[in-house]
Amino acid sequence: MIELLATRYAYLLMFVLLGIGLYMTIASQNLVKKLIGVNLFQTAIFLFFVAVAYVEVDGEPGGSPVVPATENPASSDLILASPLPHVIVLTAIVVGIALTAVGLALIVRIYSEYGTLREDTLREVRADE
Amino acid sequence: MADSRSTGYEDTYTESQVILTAVKVIAPFTLTYGMFMTLHGADTPGGSFQGGAIIGVTVLMLAFAFGIEPTRQWLKNSVIVSLVAGGVAIFVGVGLATMALGGNFLQYELFDTELGIPDGTKWGMEAIEIGGIALIVAGVVITLFFATAAGFTPEGRSYRTDSTDTDDEVITDD
Amino acid sequence: MSLVAYTLVAFILVTAVATALFRDVLSAIVVFGAYSLGMAILYTLLLAPDVAMTEAAIGAGVTTILLLLTIARTSRPSTERLFEPINVPALVIVGAFVLVLVTQLLPEMYAVGDPAAPVWSNPEVTQAYLEQTYRDTGVQNAVTAVLAAYRGFDTFGEAVVVFAAGIATLLVLKREVFA
């Protein structure tokens, strides 16, 4: 059991972070904190992709994905992390911040419209309309 | 204090000698580092997404040190527009150029075979990295910062033009 | 896995829990910045320097600044208590979710860094990229090669999404100037 958890620590961390992010989006009444929760959930997924790409042979970690400058590299030089998940995460981080900014702009609009950022107060105000 | 909604920037800006000095020293290095990362992303870790973000963050640092409104006036709107829109245009342009040469979208090796540019694939990639993605990311980071800093004011559409479009202010509360 | 990695994992867990529990939004934002930085260092240990740089610049830097600007533009509720009260129903649901993932999914996954894992051992994806990158494109950084050449059209879509999100922010805030 301990062996299982120790060798899969990154995935375990990812599951816990998924839980924390989900808890924040459900339980927090503040809209800004909800958005932070979404961001936390998102970084957990990034961690999954990066952990999947990682490689080590006999406990020795490989290299970062920078290949040697030869036409036909030896396979012993190619114990490198997989570049494809890195690319997906890279673009996802930049898209994530752009979408977070849209969410924050919506929050600013909600505040100027209703004067509150709390979800329960917002429900009451909207029910009264 | 938490409820005092400020409408401008000057009231929230306080000049701090520590931040001002630190930013004056650090900013040239951050800009250089961001450009190094963008320009040298082909052979070392790094690339245009990271480099563009760091170039954008340099402007954010300047805004923190010198105040957001002075930075906004120093950095003209047309600069940001040309960064963001120009980046997308260069990216599309490189893609369409390869199509004009008779290939597919972003088929870089045509620069080599059709135009005779040595290492055409590499230079095509550098073109969309440096000219496309880095400009878009830097421009969007700056845009998001200034947009969020300005917040939402129902009456004035922007702080720069405060005399135009007054018909927005006609709000009847029925 | 070294002592550094264990310390980092503990740091990330503590900052994540603190982000969730702090009642003051400003404290939560600052702790979230620290969390992002810890995450960036963990990415470096997991051999992803490109991702780590992006996370450090954008996750720890830009996200924190935008969140701070938002609470400066809206309100920051004054608080007496340090932590939020625990929402028990939400905690039960989330706990069940995590429990199912850990007990059912975790034993089925490959160990972190196992060369037999399909992502890494697949000769048609990862191995092909690593072998052909320099021959095909002439660049050494395989991440750049995949980003700009092999998946260039995908990256084009991402860049346009970023552009569109910038425009959307301006639209939501009813602004007509970029700066």
TrEMBL record, chain A:
Q: Where in the cell is it found?
A: Membrane
InterPro entries linked to this entry: CPA3_antiporter_subunitC, NUOK/Mnh_C1-like
A Pfam match is Oxidored_q2
Membrane-crossing ranges are 6-24, 36-55, 87-108
Q: Which UniProt keywords apply?
A: Membrane, Transmembrane, Transmembrane helix
Instruction: Report how it sits in the membrane.
Output: Multi-pass membrane protein
Task: Say if the entry is tagged with keyword Transmembrane.
Answer: yes
**Principal subcellular localisation of the protein:** membrane
NCBIfam families membership: PRK07375.1-6
Q: Which named protein is this?
A: Cation:proton antiporter subunit C
According to its UniProt entry, this protein's organism is Natronosalvus hydrolyticus
UniProtKB/TrEMBL annotation, chain B:
Its placement in the membrane is given as: Multi-pass membrane protein
Superkingdom per UniProt: Archaea
One GO cellular component from the entry? plasma membrane
TM stretches of this protein: 21-42, 48-68, 80-101, 130-152
User: Coiled-coil segments, which residues?
Assistant: none
- Transmembrane listed as a keyword: yes
Which ranges carry the Na+/H+ antiporter MnhB subunit-related protein domain? 20-142
Compartment(s): Cell membrane
Q: Does the keyword Membrane apply?
A: yes
- Could you list this entry's UniProt keywords, alphabetically sorted: Cell membrane, Membrane, Transmembrane, Transmembrane helix
Q: Which InterPro entries match?
A: CPA3_antiporter_subunitB, MnhB
The cross-references to NCBIfam families, in alphabetical order and at most eight, read: PRK12505.1
Its protein name is Cation:proton antiporter
Task: Provide the taxonomic classification.
Answer: Archaea, Methanobacteriati, Methanobacteriota, Stenosarchaea group, Halobacteria
Automatic annotation (TrEMBL), chain C:
Its keywords, alphabetically, are: Cell membrane, Membrane, Transmembrane, Transmembrane helix, Transport
The MrpA C-terminal/MbhE domain covers 124-175
Q: What is its main location?
A: membrane
Membrane-topology annotation of the record: Multi-pass membrane protein
* Entry keyword annotation includes Transport: yes
Q: Where are the transmembrane segments?
A: 6-22, 29-48, 54-74, 86-106, 156-173
Gene Ontology CC: one annotated term: plasma membrane
Q: Where in the cell is it found?
A: Cell membrane
Is Cell membrane one of the keywords UniProt gives this record?
yes
What NCBIfam families is this protein classified in? PRK12504.1
* PANTHER family, alphabetized: NA(+)/H(+) ANTIPORTER SUBUNIT, NA(+)_H(+) ANTIPORTER SUBUNIT A
The name on file for this protein is DUF4040 domain-containing protein
Per the UniProt record, the source organism is Natronosalvus hydrolyticus
